[in-house]
Design brief:
Elements lengths: L12 E9 L14 H10 L4 E4 L8 H8 L5 E10 L6 E6 L6 H10 L18 H10 L3 E4 L8 H4 L2 H9 L3 E5 L6 H5 L4 H4 L12 E3 L23 E5 L4 H9 L1 H4 E3 L10 E8 L7 E3 L4 E6 L5 H11 L7 H14 L5 E7 L5 E7 L16 H4 L3 E3 L3 H6 L2 H9 L5 H51 L3 H39 L13 H60 L1 H31 L2 H36 L4 E10 L1 H11 L6 H10 L2 H12 L5 H10 L3 H14 L2 H10 L3 E11 L2 E4 L5 H12 L7 E4 L10 H12 L5 E4 L3 H6 L4 E7 L4 E7 L6 H10 L2 H11 L1 H4 L1
Parallel strand pairs: 1-2, 2-3, 5-6, 6-7, 12-20, 12-21, 15-19, 19-20
Antiparallel strand pairs: 1-8, 3-4, 4-5, 8-9, 10-11, 10-13, 13-14, 16-17, 17-18, 21-22
Helix pairs in contact: 1-2, 11-12, 16-19, 16-20, 16-26, 17-18, 17-19, 21-22, 23-24, 23-25, 23-26, 24-25
Length: about 900
């Protein structure tokens, strides 16, 4: 383990600095009574993390201000504002040194520059050296030279002209320029601000120079004096690990990501992974804290870098979709986390709320979470994870590509709608299937009744006599009255069942995390009130139905004696007739009873079959709703693809072909048709030339309702013989449940198909299937680094990439995005880690059976800087040898 706590730091963060502050050490400071303590106090009140004490040709006040700041949250940079020859009457430069330096170092510099102690603090004292010579001396002494207020009096851009100015700006000893015109809209429109002239695009200067604001703490009275009140009036944010000269040097070397003017910095809250802790296995007791920006995980082969990524995926339940990669993931967890090993992560959600998720590796218990959760972590905290080979697998599969694109916008509410409608349709499918089966059964019963009725008619003719005539008339009335009573009894039973169902219902469950939310509690009350209202009305209906049923019973009670008397008279007549007449009467009575039973069943079945129309209409509306959801889903997908395409800078074409993927329809229909002897080519024709809904409706109308016209028209439309289509239709209805056929209509809807094309050069775009592995990876990584808020965690994203594309396709995107999104990479690539300006490095080391985190922080300081060079460049000597071979100075 490292010996010092200095090996661990939080990484880079923006610190508010005013690097041009005057004190009474300058003769032009107005209020000579101001004390060092007041300067420090005012700086802290202004929210400054550091100040540069830069008096005119003086370092007299540096030590006293440093003493006043000791133990306070303020860093003091020793500095000095120098006036050297050049321009119309001298040019001002700012020299800044490390906070460990002091007054003596500044006075030594002044002496080296030729000033006498009598000239210290005098703004008019002129160093008899040109600015480049002065800057070179500052450099040799370990300082940084900045062009003071470059756009104003005594400023290099204002008071210098021609080659003298160009040489100064191009000098390697000049590290930055102060500008006071950042918010000058007129100058901005003409691109005449300091930051515009020095942004690297000017053909004269041919150099990009860091530019920042500093106050020069004016009095505000237009008197040319300096005052305490002006401190921090203009300032900038510098992204530093520690506030010192090494960190400041890094900021000036890479201002695009390291410097923000005070009005530019926007703090945003976005989801991020704060910390991972491992208990058990190869990384037992390992902890890693992550930065909200770019994190680079380094280490030798086998140190456990990829394991950190796999452990994050495990605890957040976001496993690889590809079977082979998921199997590899599981294998690593089994061998490197081991049974009962636990991974805990601390997270910050998009509302700024911090929470912890902990999970144990325990296959027997399905790897339980050891912290209370309101939802699945994959829904609670989505992350874009990619392992070393996963991106290639995504590039080779259209379904994976669509799922990949979906990660870049909030598609979850569409999936929720689709899921809700799917469950609703499953219920409707079941009820409609029952109604269709009731229709079929009722149709068969009606045929039986018709057949028996004909036999009864024949028996009626044979049995004709006055007693029979009277009885047959009363018999019809008796059957009618009993059917009505039976109907009311069924209705009562259904009402009781519905009442019991609602009595058991308590509404949807509420996650523990939402239980105390006022809006949720009010809505739960509404649901309970609704259930209570339904129960109340059901009870009223049951009471009313009981009264009505009793009235029907009363009617039958009045009628029953007359029917009984008629039946008795008929029975006596039959007994008297005897012989064949008696046998015929018995046969008729049996058939009448059978018809009555069948009619009771038919009445029940008809109630269900009568619902076919209303259920079909409800299904149609639900399917229309499902299609509408898919349409809106597609529209947002297209918009996201257009955004991805725009941000790709012309490197990609990302299109969505709406509802063109019929694979699910084909797969399901192919599975269903086995045994029907239809050819796969015929199934393909059905899938391409019609949709699941039209096909299912045609089959059901043909086979269940006997309407063949629609199926015949469909056969002609898809180019299949009618007899072959009828064969398939008959087979499907005979072999499968109606629910399975109905499910095709909504579960096999054509899906969107992505088309991703990559510019292989010269504006020639090729689809992914025609690209090399490196080009595929590049294309998918361009998409992966698209704008979004979910953390991006990738294991060695540079693998298989063309090294020439890493800067443009990865580094530039990460540099732009890391203030609004978290990136966590394992990497061996110096371009990705260093050129992207990693905010925090995490370095692992390992022995044969145990790995650990040994360093974390930025590379601005030792020992991280040496470790980064060792892991990414092979060491200082290797890098120097390469640098010398490249001859970078000759390529400028």
């Amino acid at each position: 383990m490292p010996a010092s706590k200095a090996s661990f730091s939080e990484g880079l963060r923006f610190r508010k600095l005013d690097l041009h502050v005057h004190t009474p050490g300058s003769e032009c400071f107005g209020d000579r009574s101001v004390t060092p303590e007041q300067i420090v106090e005012a700086a802290i009140e202004k929210g400054l993390d550091g100040i540069g004490i830069t008096d005119h040709n003086s370092g007299a006040w540096i030590d006293s201000v440093k003493r006043a700041a000791h133990g306070k949250p303020l860093i003091v940079f020793p500095g000095v504002e120098l006036t050297c020859t050049g321009g119309r009457g001298g040019i001002h430069l700012i020299a800044l040194f490390d906070p460990q330096r002091g007054t003596q170092d500044i006075e030594s510099l002044l002496g080296n520059l030729g000033l006498t102690p009598a000239e210290y603090g005098n703004i008019a004292a002129l160093i008899q050296k040109d600015p480049i010579a002065v800057a070179e001396i500052v450099e040799r002494r370990g300082g940084l030279t900045v062009l003071a207020h470059a756009n104003s009096t005594k400023g290099a851009l204002n008071d210098m002209r021609g080659q003298q100015r160009t040489n100064l700006i191009q000098s390697r000893y000049i590290h930055a320029a102060e500008g006071t015109d950042f918010r000058d809209t007129g100058a901005a429109a003409e691109r005449k601000r300091v930051c515009d002239l020095l942004d690297g695009t000017d053909s004269t200067y041919q150099r990009k120079l860091a530019c920042y604001q500093a106050s020069d703490n004016p009095s505000g009275e237009n008197d040319g004096l300096h005052a305490l009140s002006g401190m921090g009036g203009r300032c900038a944010f510098f992204k530093l690990d520690r506030v010192d000269i090494d960190g400041l040097r890094q900021c000036l070397a890479d201002p695009d990501v390291r410097i923000r003017q005070d009005f530019e910095l926007i703090s945003s809250v976005y989801p991020r992974i704060l910390k991972i802790e491992v208990m058990g296995g190869f990384l037992d007791r390992a902890e890693a804290e992550f930065h909200g920006g770019l994190n680079s995980i380094l280490g030798a082969k086998g140190a456990g870098k990829s394991l950190l990524i796999e452990f994050l995926r495990f605890v957040l339940n976001q496993l690889p979709k590809n079977d082979d990669i998921r199997a590899d993931h599981t294998s690593k967890l089994e061998s490197k986390l081991e049974n009962y090993g636990t991974v805990q992560v601390t997270l910050l959600d998009d509302t700024g709320k911090e929470f912890t998720v902990s999970r144990m590796w325990d296959p027997a218990e399905d790897h339980p979470y050891t912290t209370a959760l309101t939802r699945d972590p994959s829904e609670l905290f989505p992350v874009l994870f990619l392992s070393q080979n996963e991106i290639i697998k995504i590039a080779e599969n259209e379904d994976a590509q669509i799922a990949f694109i979906d990660q870049f916008f909030d598609f979850r509410h569409y999936q929720q709608e689709i899921g809700d409608l799917g469950r609703q349709l499953e219920g409707l499918d079941k009820r409609l299937s029952e109604s269709i089966r009731a229709f079929q059964a009722n149709r068969d019963i009606e045929r039986q009744i018709l057949s028996i009725a004909k036999e009864i008619e024949e028996l009626d003719a044979a049995l004709k006599n006055p007693a029979f005539d009277q009885y047959s008339q009363t018999e019809v009335k008796d059957q009618t009255l009993r059917q009505q009573r039976s109907f009311l009894a069924d209705l009562t039973q259904q009402l009781e069942a519905t009442h019991q169902e609602y009595e058991r219902s308590r509404g949807p469950g509420v996650p523990a995390g939402c239980a105390d939310d006022p809006a949720v509690k009010r809505t739960v009350d509404v649901v309970r009130e609704a259930i209570g209202s339904v129960l109340e009305h059901l009870e009223l209906a049951a009471k009313k139905l009981k009264d009505l049923s009793q009235r029907a019973e009363d009617e039958y009670s009045k009628w029953a004696p007359r029917f009984k008397a008629s039946k008795q008279t008929y029975t006596e007549a039959v007994q008297k007739a005897g012989g064949d007449y008696k046998n015929l009467a018995q046969k008729r009575a049996k058939q009448v009873k059978e018809v009555e039973v069948l009619r009771q069943r038919a009445a029940t079945l008809k109630q269900k079959s009568d619902q076919i129309r209303s259920l079909s209409e409800a299904r149609r509306k639900a399917i229309d709703g499902l299609k509408d959801t898919y349409d809106r889903y597609t529209h947002e997908r297209k918009a996201k693809c257009a955004q991805i395409e725009g941000e790709a800078g012309g490197r990609l074409q990302v299109r969505i072909h709406e509802s063109s993927n019929v694979d699910e329809f084909r797969n399901r229909l192919t599975a269903l048709k086995r045994g029907s002897y239809l050819k796969d080519s015929e199934i393909d024709a059905i899938c391409v030339k019609t949709d699941p809904g039209s096909f299912v409706r045609a089959v059901i109308r043909s086979e269940i309702f006997g309407e063949n016209k629609t199926l015949q028209e469909l056969a002609k439309a898809v180019g299949i013989e009618v007899s072959r289509m009828l064969t398939l239709s008959e087979f499907l209805v005979n072999e499968f449940q109606v629910e399975e056929l109905l499910a095709l209509e909504h579960q096999a809807l054509p899906q969107d198909r992505p088309e991703i094309r990559y510019d292989i050069g010269g504006g020639t775009f090729e689809t992914l299937n025609r690209l090399s592995v490196g080009q595929k990876c590049t294309a998918m990584l361009i998409i992966a680094l698209n704008e979004g808020s979910a953390p991006v965690v990738i294991d060695q994203p540079e693998d298989s990439l063309d090294i020439r594309t890493i800067w443009e396709d990865m580094c530039m995107k990460v540099r732009r995005g890391k203030e609004r999104r978290q990136f966590i990479f394992t990497t061996h690539n110096s371009s990705l880690a260093v050129a992207s300006d990693t905010d925090k490095f995490t370095i692992l080391e390992a022995g044969a059976d145990h790995g650990r985190v040994v360093y974390s922080g930025s590379m601005d300081h030792s020992p991280l800087s040496e470790e980064v060079i060792n892991y990414l460049e092979g060491g200082v000597d290797t890098y120097r040898a390469k640098y010398g071979k490249y001859r970078i100075d000759k390529l400028r």
